[in-house]
Specification:
Blueprint (H helix, E strand, L loop, with lengths): L11 E2 L10 E5 L7 E8 L8 E3 L3 E13 L4 E5 L3 E4 L6 E4 L5 E8 L4 E3 L3
Antiparallel strand pairs: 1-2, 2-3, 3-9, 4-10, 5-6, 5-7, 5-8, 5-9
């Protein structure tokens, strides 16, 4: 068994063309897992990811700030304590609301493909 305190995990810059801005960090929470990717993504004010889809399901657990989760047909505000299940293949984006930083834990199966659907 291993216990991880998110407050003690280093925030590494997370530079990726999937994001609308550079102010994003990643905290790898369980690097030893053989099945899951479990990480914290911290978004700067107004930064989000672009429309994308995952090969498998994705779970988001909001830990701080005010964010938005959106599909092509709906947009919802999410805040600390909210849990989101995104079905496999659903086109979506998520990130910080204007004027707010935003953090969430994401859980996906390791090796699952992510397809960026917005330039």
């Amino acid at each position: 068994m291993k216990v991880v305190r998110t407050s003690e995990v280093v925030k590494e810059p997370f530079v990726n063309p999937l994001f609308t801005g550079p102010d994003v960090t990643l905290q790898v929470l369980v690097p030893g897992s053989r099945e899951f990717d479990v990480n914290v993504v911290n978004f700067g004010k107004g930064v989000r990811n672009k429309f994308h889809a995952h090969e498998g399901e994705q779970v988001l657990i909001v830990t701080a700030g005010k964010g938005i989760i959106a599909t092509e047909t709906e947009k919802k505000v999410i805040t600390a304590g909210d849990v989101v299940l995104i079905p496999a293949g659903e086109k979506h984006w998520h990130g910080a609301a204007e004027g707010s930083e935003f953090s969430h834990i994401y859980i996906t199966r390791q090796g699952g493909k992510v397809t960026q659907l917005e330039e």
